[in-house]
Amino acid sequence: MAHPDDGLDGAEGFRVMQEPLPQPMRIYVCTTCRAEGDASDGPRAGTRLFDALKAADAALDLVPVECLSVCKRACTVSFAATGKWTYVYGDLPAEAAVPVIREAARLYAEAPDGLIPWKLRPDAIKKGVVARIPPLPIEISRP
Amino acid sequence: MAHPDDGLDGAEGFRVMQEPLPQPMRIYVCTTCRAEGDASDGPRAGTRLFDALKAADAALDLVPVECLSVCKRACTVSFAATGKWTYVYGDLPAEAAVPVIREAARLYAEAPDGLIPWKLRPDAIKKGVVARIPPLPIEISRP
User: Fold this and answer.
1) What is the pLDDT of residue A40?
2) What was the ipTM of the complex prediction?
3) Would the pLDDT of B91 be above 50?
Protein backbone atom coordinates (compact mmCIF):
# COMPACT_ATOMS: atom_id res chain seq x y z
CA MET A 1 0.00 0.00 0.00
CA ALA A 2 1.28 3.43 -0.87
CA HIS A 3 1.98 5.78 2.02
CA PRO A 4 -0.85 8.32 2.32
CA ASP A 5 1.67 11.13 1.80
CA ASP A 6 3.10 9.83 -1.46
CA GLY A 7 2.48 12.92 -3.55
CA LEU A 8 -0.22 11.22 -5.58
CA ASP A 9 -3.88 12.08 -5.91
CA GLY A 10 -6.78 9.71 -6.33
CA ALA A 11 -7.54 6.16 -5.31
CA GLU A 12 -5.75 4.64 -8.29
CA GLY A 13 -2.61 6.54 -7.46
CA PHE A 14 -2.32 8.70 -10.54
CA ARG A 15 -2.06 12.43 -10.67
CA VAL A 16 -4.61 14.39 -12.64
CA MET A 17 -2.52 16.23 -15.20
CA GLN A 18 -2.78 19.95 -15.14
CA GLU A 19 -0.59 22.84 -16.15
CA PRO A 20 1.59 23.81 -13.22
CA LEU A 21 0.91 27.43 -12.41
CA PRO A 22 3.70 29.67 -11.19
CA GLN A 23 2.42 29.90 -7.63
CA PRO A 24 4.25 32.24 -5.32
CA MET A 25 5.59 30.27 -2.38
CA ARG A 26 7.07 31.36 0.88
CA ILE A 27 9.81 29.79 2.98
CA TYR A 28 9.66 30.40 6.72
CA VAL A 29 12.99 29.85 8.47
CA CYS A 30 13.21 29.48 12.25
CA THR A 31 16.05 31.79 13.26
CA THR A 32 15.85 30.74 16.92
CA CYS A 33 16.87 27.13 16.19
CA ARG A 34 20.08 26.29 18.01
CA ALA A 35 22.31 23.39 16.99
CA GLU A 36 24.61 21.38 19.25
CA GLY A 37 27.97 23.08 19.25
CA ASP A 38 26.63 26.58 18.53
CA ALA A 39 28.84 29.14 20.23
CA SER A 40 26.90 31.03 22.88
CA ASP A 41 28.10 34.36 21.49
CA GLY A 42 27.74 33.52 17.78
CA PRO A 43 24.72 33.42 15.49
CA ARG A 44 22.45 30.43 15.98
CA ALA A 45 22.22 27.66 13.38
CA GLY A 46 18.78 28.88 12.30
CA THR A 47 20.03 32.39 11.72
CA ARG A 48 23.02 31.07 9.79
CA LEU A 49 20.68 28.99 7.62
CA PHE A 50 18.49 32.03 6.94
CA ASP A 51 21.50 34.18 5.99
CA ALA A 52 22.95 31.45 3.77
CA LEU A 53 19.66 30.93 1.91
CA LYS A 54 19.31 34.68 1.38
CA ALA A 55 22.84 34.92 0.03
CA ALA A 56 22.37 31.89 -2.22
CA ASP A 57 19.15 32.91 -3.94
CA ALA A 58 17.73 36.43 -3.97
CA ALA A 59 14.57 35.16 -5.70
CA LEU A 60 13.38 33.16 -2.67
CA ASP A 61 10.57 34.66 -0.57
CA LEU A 62 12.28 34.05 2.77
CA VAL A 63 10.67 35.06 6.05
CA PRO A 64 12.55 34.72 9.34
CA VAL A 65 10.43 33.42 12.22
CA GLU A 66 11.15 33.44 15.93
CA CYS A 67 10.28 29.82 16.70
CA LEU A 68 8.30 27.38 14.61
CA SER A 69 7.85 25.30 17.81
CA VAL A 70 9.98 22.42 16.52
CA CYS A 71 12.78 23.15 18.98
CA LYS A 72 13.94 19.51 19.28
CA ARG A 73 14.58 19.12 15.54
CA ALA A 74 16.72 22.13 14.54
CA CYS A 75 17.10 23.55 11.96
CA THR A 76 13.54 23.98 10.80
CA VAL A 77 11.81 25.53 7.78
CA SER A 78 8.27 25.60 6.42
CA PHE A 79 7.01 25.84 2.84
CA ALA A 80 3.66 27.56 2.33
CA ALA A 81 1.60 28.92 -0.54
CA THR A 82 -2.06 29.83 -0.95
CA GLY A 83 -4.00 26.77 -2.10
CA LYS A 84 -1.17 24.33 -1.41
CA TRP A 85 -0.32 21.94 1.40
CA THR A 86 1.96 23.51 4.01
CA TYR A 87 5.05 21.47 4.91
CA VAL A 88 7.34 21.71 7.94
CA TYR A 89 10.82 20.18 7.77
CA GLY A 90 13.34 19.72 10.56
CA ASP A 91 16.73 18.10 11.28
CA LEU A 92 18.32 20.35 8.66
CA PRO A 93 22.09 20.90 9.03
CA ALA A 94 22.13 24.73 8.99
CA GLU A 95 24.15 26.19 6.09
CA ALA A 96 24.75 22.74 4.62
CA ALA A 97 20.99 22.42 3.98
CA VAL A 98 20.89 25.24 1.42
CA PRO A 99 21.11 23.07 -1.74
CA VAL A 100 18.46 20.59 -0.56
CA ILE A 101 16.08 23.36 0.51
CA ARG A 102 16.47 25.13 -2.84
CA GLU A 103 15.82 21.89 -4.74
CA ALA A 104 12.78 21.00 -2.61
CA ALA A 105 11.43 24.54 -2.96
CA ARG A 106 11.69 24.30 -6.74
CA LEU A 107 9.72 21.04 -6.72
CA TYR A 108 7.15 22.46 -4.29
CA ALA A 109 6.66 25.54 -6.48
CA GLU A 110 6.09 23.30 -9.50
CA ALA A 111 3.58 21.03 -7.76
CA PRO A 112 0.05 22.45 -8.19
CA ASP A 113 -1.00 21.23 -4.72
CA GLY A 114 2.44 21.40 -3.08
CA LEU A 115 2.75 17.61 -2.91
CA ILE A 116 6.19 16.64 -4.21
CA PRO A 117 6.13 13.16 -5.76
CA TRP A 118 7.77 10.79 -3.26
CA LYS A 119 10.49 9.57 -5.63
CA LEU A 120 11.65 13.10 -6.36
CA ARG A 121 11.95 14.13 -2.72
CA PRO A 122 15.51 14.59 -1.51
CA ASP A 123 16.38 12.23 1.37
CA ALA A 124 16.72 15.04 3.91
CA ILE A 125 13.19 16.12 3.02
CA LYS A 126 11.77 12.60 3.34
CA LYS A 127 13.42 12.04 6.71
CA GLY A 128 13.03 15.57 8.00
CA VAL A 129 9.29 15.98 7.55
CA VAL A 130 7.72 17.25 10.76
CA ALA A 131 4.15 17.84 9.60
CA ARG A 132 1.99 18.71 6.61
CA ILE A 133 -1.29 20.59 6.68
CA PRO A 134 -3.89 20.75 3.89
CA PRO A 135 -4.63 24.08 2.22
CA LEU A 136 -7.56 26.12 3.44
CA PRO A 137 -10.23 26.62 0.79
CA ILE A 138 -9.51 29.55 -1.51
CA GLU A 139 -12.20 32.10 -2.17
CA ILE A 140 -12.14 32.66 -5.89
CA SER A 141 -13.43 36.07 -6.86
CA ARG A 142 -13.81 37.37 -10.38
CA PRO A 143 -13.27 41.07 -10.99
CA MET B 1 13.13 35.70 28.89
CA ALA B 2 9.73 34.74 27.63
CA HIS B 3 9.54 31.84 25.21
CA PRO B 4 9.14 33.15 21.65
CA ASP B 5 5.86 31.25 21.36
CA ASP B 6 4.24 32.72 24.43
CA GLY B 7 1.12 34.05 22.77
CA LEU B 8 2.16 37.65 23.24
CA ASP B 9 2.85 40.29 20.63
CA GLY B 10 5.41 43.05 20.82
CA ALA B 11 8.75 43.52 22.49
CA GLU B 12 7.26 44.61 25.79
CA GLY B 13 5.21 41.47 25.97
CA PHE B 14 1.75 42.98 25.88
CA ARG B 15 -0.99 42.25 23.42
CA VAL B 16 -2.48 45.06 21.40
CA MET B 17 -6.11 45.04 22.43
CA GLN B 18 -8.60 44.57 19.67
CA GLU B 19 -12.07 43.18 19.36
CA PRO B 20 -11.88 39.45 18.75
CA LEU B 21 -13.62 38.76 15.49
CA PRO B 22 -15.56 35.57 14.97
CA GLN B 23 -13.01 34.01 12.61
CA PRO B 24 -13.99 30.72 11.05
CA MET B 25 -11.43 28.10 12.01
CA ARG B 26 -10.90 24.60 10.77
CA ILE B 27 -9.70 21.52 12.62
CA TYR B 28 -7.88 18.91 10.59
CA VAL B 29 -7.85 15.47 12.21
CA CYS B 30 -5.46 12.74 11.05
CA THR B 31 -7.64 9.65 10.71
CA THR B 32 -4.68 7.41 9.84
CA CYS B 33 -3.02 7.84 13.23
CA ARG B 34 -2.71 4.50 14.99
CA ALA B 35 -2.23 4.18 18.74
CA GLU B 36 -0.48 1.37 20.57
CA GLY B 37 -3.05 -1.27 21.35
CA ASP B 38 -5.36 -0.44 18.44
CA ALA B 39 -7.07 -3.62 17.26
CA SER B 40 -6.01 -4.46 13.70
CA ASP B 41 -9.64 -4.90 12.65
CA GLY B 42 -11.07 -1.90 14.52
CA PRO B 43 -11.08 1.79 13.77
CA ARG B 44 -7.77 3.55 14.33
CA ALA B 45 -7.27 6.01 17.17
CA GLY B 46 -7.31 8.95 14.74
CA THR B 47 -10.62 7.87 13.25
CA ARG B 48 -12.09 7.36 16.72
CA LEU B 49 -10.94 10.88 17.67
CA PHE B 50 -12.54 12.33 14.55
CA ASP B 51 -15.83 10.54 15.20
CA ALA B 52 -15.85 11.56 18.86
CA LEU B 53 -15.21 15.23 18.04
CA LYS B 54 -17.97 15.18 15.45
CA ALA B 55 -20.41 13.63 17.91
CA ALA B 56 -19.44 16.07 20.66
CA ASP B 57 -19.83 19.32 18.76
CA ALA B 58 -21.69 19.71 15.48
CA ALA B 59 -20.51 23.34 15.21
CA LEU B 60 -16.85 22.39 14.67
CA ASP B 61 -15.50 22.61 11.11
CA LEU B 62 -13.82 19.19 11.18
CA VAL B 63 -11.93 17.85 8.20
CA PRO B 64 -10.54 14.30 8.21
CA VAL B 65 -7.06 14.00 6.67
CA GLU B 66 -5.18 10.91 5.59
CA CYS B 67 -1.87 11.60 7.29
CA LEU B 68 -0.58 14.87 8.67
CA SER B 69 2.93 13.31 8.56
CA VAL B 70 3.29 13.24 12.34
CA CYS B 71 3.07 9.46 12.49
CA LYS B 72 5.28 9.07 15.58
CA ARG B 73 3.10 11.31 17.75
CA ALA B 74 -0.47 10.00 17.33
CA CYS B 75 -3.13 11.29 17.62
CA THR B 76 -2.62 14.49 15.68
CA VAL B 77 -4.75 17.53 14.82
CA SER B 78 -4.14 20.92 13.23
CA PHE B 79 -5.90 24.26 13.79
CA ALA B 80 -5.99 26.63 10.82
CA ALA B 81 -7.76 29.84 9.84
CA THR B 82 -7.11 32.50 7.23
CA GLY B 83 -4.87 35.19 8.69
CA LYS B 84 -3.94 33.17 11.78
CA TRP B 85 -0.98 31.05 12.79
CA THR B 86 -1.48 27.36 11.97
CA TYR B 87 -0.82 24.94 14.83
CA VAL B 88 -0.15 21.20 14.78
CA TYR B 89 -0.64 19.17 17.96
CA GLY B 90 0.27 15.54 18.64
CA ASP B 91 0.42 12.98 21.46
CA LEU B 92 -3.35 13.32 21.90
CA PRO B 93 -5.08 10.36 23.59
CA ALA B 94 -7.78 9.67 20.96
CA GLU B 95 -11.35 10.04 22.32
CA ALA B 96 -10.05 11.26 25.67
CA ALA B 97 -8.65 14.36 23.95
CA VAL B 98 -12.07 15.72 22.97
CA PRO B 99 -12.50 18.17 25.89
CA VAL B 100 -9.00 19.62 25.59
CA ILE B 101 -9.30 20.03 21.82
CA ARG B 102 -12.65 21.79 22.18
CA GLU B 103 -11.26 24.14 24.82
CA ALA B 104 -8.12 24.91 22.78
CA ALA B 105 -10.22 25.46 19.66
CA ARG B 106 -12.39 27.96 21.53
CA LEU B 107 -9.30 29.88 22.64
CA TYR B 108 -7.81 29.73 19.14
CA ALA B 109 -11.01 31.05 17.60
CA GLU B 110 -11.00 33.94 20.07
CA ALA B 111 -7.36 34.88 19.44
CA PRO B 112 -7.14 37.37 16.57
CA ASP B 113 -3.81 35.91 15.40
CA GLY B 114 -4.39 32.34 16.62
CA LEU B 115 -1.79 32.67 19.40
CA ILE B 116 -3.31 31.36 22.61
CA PRO B 117 -1.78 33.09 25.64
CA TRP B 118 0.65 30.62 27.24
CA LYS B 119 -1.03 30.61 30.66
CA LEU B 120 -4.39 29.70 29.17
CA ARG B 121 -3.10 26.76 27.14
CA PRO B 122 -4.17 23.36 28.42
CA ASP B 123 -1.19 21.18 29.41
CA ALA B 124 -1.80 18.68 26.61
CA ILE B 125 -1.62 21.55 24.15
CA LYS B 126 1.61 22.93 25.63
CA LYS B 127 3.30 19.54 25.62
CA GLY B 128 1.77 18.29 22.40
CA VAL B 129 2.78 21.13 20.10
CA VAL B 130 4.44 19.74 16.97
CA ALA B 131 4.82 22.92 14.93
CA ARG B 132 3.37 26.36 14.28
CA ILE B 133 3.47 28.27 11.00
CA PRO B 134 2.80 31.99 10.51
CA PRO B 135 -0.18 33.08 8.43
CA LEU B 136 0.32 33.91 4.78
CA PRO B 137 -0.50 37.52 3.91
CA ILE B 138 -4.19 38.08 3.23
CA GLU B 139 -5.29 39.92 0.14
CA ILE B 140 -8.01 42.28 1.26
CA SER B 141 -10.44 43.16 -1.48
CA ARG B 142 -13.35 45.55 -1.22
CA PRO B 143 -16.42 44.86 -3.29
Assistant:
1) 86
2) 0.83
3) yes
**Interface check A72 vs B, CB under 8 A:** no
Closest of A5, A8, A11, A25 to residue A84, by C-alpha: A25
CA B63, B65, B68, B72 dihedral sign is positive
Residue B101 phi/psi, 5° resolution?
A: -70, -40
Residues A77-108: pLDDT tens digits? 999 999 999 999 999 999 999 999 999 999 99
By CA distance, what is B66's nearest residue in A?
A: A4
How many CB atoms neighbour CB B23 within 10 A?
16
Quick check: A44 pLDDT over 70? Answer: yes
B68 in contact with A, Cβ within 8 Å: yes
How far apart are the C-alpha atoms of B53 and B41, rounded to whole Å? 22
Q: How many CB pairs under 8 A join A and B?
A: 74
Distance CA A121, CA A35 (A): 24
